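Subject: two folds for Thursday's group meeting

Dear M.,

Sorry for the delay on this. The cluster queue was jammed most of the week, so I only got both jobs back this morning. I'm pasting them in the order they finished. Each block is the input sequence followed by the predicted structure tokens. Could you check whether the formatting survives your parser before we put anything on slides? The first protein is the one we discussed after the seminar.
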Amino acid sequence: MLVWGIQDPLGPNQRMDRAALPIASFAGPKDAPQENSSQLIRTTNIATDPLRASCRNNVLSFSFNDGTDWGSPVASSPRTG
């Protein structure tokens, strides 16, 4: 994940910085079963781009669409990192 920042954005010493942050590997979203149907809900078309970012107590967090193994087939789930 590349994070960009601007130092002194309105001043004479403007500078753009970049930091590369590691993100652990994860499975992408999987199509989801629905009750009383053999048709799957298509969730594989939502990609894994970051959805939101926040900074709290100097910790930068992101949320993604993810696939998680909850003890059965991999299912779509939100992921934060």
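Second protein, same layout:
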Amino acid sequence: MSPTPSLNVSLTPHLERFIAALVSSSRYQSASEVVRAGLRLLVKFEADGLPATESGNQNGIAARARGGSKKPVQPADRRDG
């Protein structure tokens, strides 16, 4: 098996704390594992035709996280990242 290429990314402090909390909780063993899990969800959202980016549709991930609610995401509802 060939080595997995590495990739450096910039994260907001909120996302850094979120990843650290998930690793600390023992749900994930590393930050890379958390990021891969998130990317798998993003692949699924894109395959389902649900835009997950703010530029595509602010309701993408937020609506799915609320169980498919159509309630628009207000700026106060969002976190930095």
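Two things I noticed about the second structure. Residues 69-81 have pLDDT under 50 and may be disordered. The chain is about 45% helix and 0% strand.

Cheers,
T.
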